[in-house]
Design brief:
InterPro entries: HMG_box_dom, HMG_box_dom_sf, HMGB
Protein name: HMG box domain-containing protein
Distance between the termini: 22 Å
Radius of gyration: 20 Å
Number of helices: 9
GO molecular function: DNA binding
CATH architecture of one domain: Orthogonal Bundle
Shape: flat
GO biological process, one term: regulation of transcription by RNA polymerase II
Keywords: DNA-binding, Nucleus
CATH topology of one domain: DNA Binding (I), subunit A
Length: 217
Amino acid sequence: MASPAKGMKRKAKDTGKPKKPTSSYFYFLEECRRKAKEEGRSLSKIAEFTRECSATWKDITATEKKKFEDKAAADKKRYQKEMESYVPTDDDDVKATKKSKKVKDENKPKRPQSAYFLFLADFRKKMKGKDIENRELLKQAGVEWGKLSKDQKKPFEKLSEVEKGKYDAAMAIYNKVGSKPATAKKSAPAANGTDDDEDDDEEEEDEEDDVDEESDE
């Protein structure tokens, strides 16, 4: 029964509906993944890798974001142009209705950070204010992490275990009590934010799916 369901999912993607525009954040994620592959880094821990890239995105300057924003603007124009001549099918209408009902569960506990990710956050604080590109910073962080002895890594590992313990306890309560659906609210974009920020979580999930599909091939 699993195979037909999977086939139906693939078929739904093969409609004539124009592909949604890619945000500047997602363009950044694509480059982040490409650079990681070039450096020979493992992408097996998708959630951890995506959180690392997300933290980097929030830390880079407006100048560094510009090239990704330019790509996003061009893709948005492409999408708007294609949508002008697009006629929705019944399948697309049903899919759009289901998606509109999907609301993010804000009560679900956030996953704990790994020892390396905690180290990276600490390393980033130490490097703050220094004239260094994020790609080089991540590379240096990876090198420094590799140089640490087991004893030097213990503080980060212990902190990660503490976070995991809190997460497991929170999830036990969450699963027992059950989640309360969050109320969908339409709010104006933050003054110092971008339209991309509200889609970050959804796009991170898309990023994980993309990597999973590549590994299956």
